[in-house]
Write a structure and sequence with these properties.
Number of domains: 1
Structural class: mainly alpha
CATH class: Mainly Alpha
Largest sheet: none
CATH architecture: Up-down Bundle
Distance between the termini: 42 Å
Number of strands: 0
Radius of gyration: 19 Å
Helix content: over 70%
């Protein structure tokens, strides 16, 4: 049986993540536009995004521990099944209340798949190749993020929201088939991890290096999720069609794809922390100007530039996570990172959704700009720590 070498990028797990991400981003896009069509308020839409992250907030660390103990295939299979169930539920029972339940299934399922497969990829790949491996994952997400909104938007315009959800079922099926193939190629993926004990995860947060990685990496994910959720609202404000709104979200992924082709060289030249600091400043700049734009070309350009900033940060933060994670607890560390991200993604949408209802999207984006600027300062502290060591 063929097994991947430490210097290779494991393409089958990357493919699983790509298709699972199609299901996740597609559902999120369709659910958002469907909620808008059902006349949901900004606060209700914020609750919808929060529902996507409730499961990850509560169970991500547990998912990581299960992956450490039982391998990626079991946890990934359960996650893919939940993404499938999210699409099926929304297609079978359309309505705002059902969209909340479908969001919980989709978000929890994708996070289980994400934690399991990323843990496996990081464990399988040698340290000097991890940035390349996670860049491949990021490229896969860029491809998914570019194609999926266009596919979902076209499906909505041609056949409606229920058919769009059914189309996305195919991605979950494909992810399940690829996962079975990956498990045949590399059936292991477990390690002798230390037994989990009450409060053990606190030790991860006590490490200042891990704290910095958790914070900055979580901000990149939060920026991506906030933008892809609130960008459709901006598109509606500008009077754009679903396809045109999908083009804005797709431009984000195009920018991520473009920059990730050279992110490994960039980190070799200026370092991981400097790359993340510059990327967070670029993200903050785009969040500052985006709500002031209304023409489709300028919105697309801003989304592309934002994608370049996000495309630098996410693979680098994952590579740093594996550099500093304790031996045998990589999955738990990935789960802890996902928990931090999920807490912010659960609470902030409700806060910003209420804020958007009260004072408009300008406050939502500008609040994000302040957060990402603070994250850039944290990354600068990482540069100083790296120089001292």
């Amino acid at each position: 049986m063929r097994r991947w070498g430490a210097g290779e990028v494991p393409l089958l797990p990357v493919g699983v993540l790509l298709l699972a991400h199609v299901g996740f981003t597609g559902n999120r896009f369709v659910f958002t536009l469907h909620a808008i069509a059902l006349h949901a308020s900004s606060f209700q839409i914020g609750l919808l995004l929060a529902a996507l992250m409730v499961g990850p907030m509560l169970f991500s660390v547990g998912m990581g521990r299960l992956t450490d103990r039982h391998g990626y295939a079991r946890v990934g299979s359960v996650g893919i099944a939940m993404v499938f169930a999210g699409s099926a539920t929304a297609a079978a029972f359309p309505g705002l209340a059902v969209l909340y339940a479908a969001s919980v299934l989709t978000g929890t399922g994708f996070m289980a798949t994400h934690v399991a497969l990323n843990t496996f990829i990081g464990r399988l790949t040698a340290a000097r190749f991890r940035t390349d491996a996670f860049s491949a994952v990021a490229l896969a997400f860029s491809i998914s993020g570019f194609c999926t909104p266009l596919l979902a938007g076209a499906s909505i315009e041609l056949a409606g929201y229920r058919v769009a959800c059914l189309v996305l079922l195919g991605a979950a099926v494909g992810a399940g088939l690829l996962l079975r193939s990956a498990a045949r190629h590399h059936p292991s993926g477990t390690v002798r991890a230390p037994a989990a004990r009450a409060g053990a995860v606190v030790e991860l947060f006590a490490d200042p290096r891990l704290r910095a990685v958790f914070l900055t990496g979580g901000l990149f994910t939060m920026a991506w999720d906030l933008f892809t959720f609130f960008a459709p609202l901006q598109g509606v404000r500008a009077g754009l069609s679903p396809v045109a709104t999908g083009a804005i979200v797709s431009a984000l992924s195009a920018g991520m794809f473009a920059v990730r082709l050279g992110v490994a060289r960039l980190t070799q030249r200026i370092g991981e922390w400097a790359t993340m600091a510059g990327a967070l400043l670029l993200v903050a700049l785009v969040f500052l100007v985006f709500p002031l734009l209304h023409a489709l070309p300028t919105l697309v350009c801003a989304a592309f530039v934002l994608g370049m900033g996000l495309g630098c940060g996410q693979p680098v933060s994952m590579a740093l996570l594996y550099q500093v994670a304790p031996e045998g607890r990589a999955g738990e560390a990935v789960g802890a990172r996902a928990t931090i991200t999920s807490v912010s993604q659960t609470l902030l949408p409700m806060l910003l959704g209420a804020l958007g209802t009260a004072v408009g999207l300008l406050a939502v984006f500008w609040s994000g700009a302040v957060l990402f600027t603070a994250g850039a300062w944290t990354a600068r502290q990482g540069i100083r720590r790296e120089r001292r060591s």
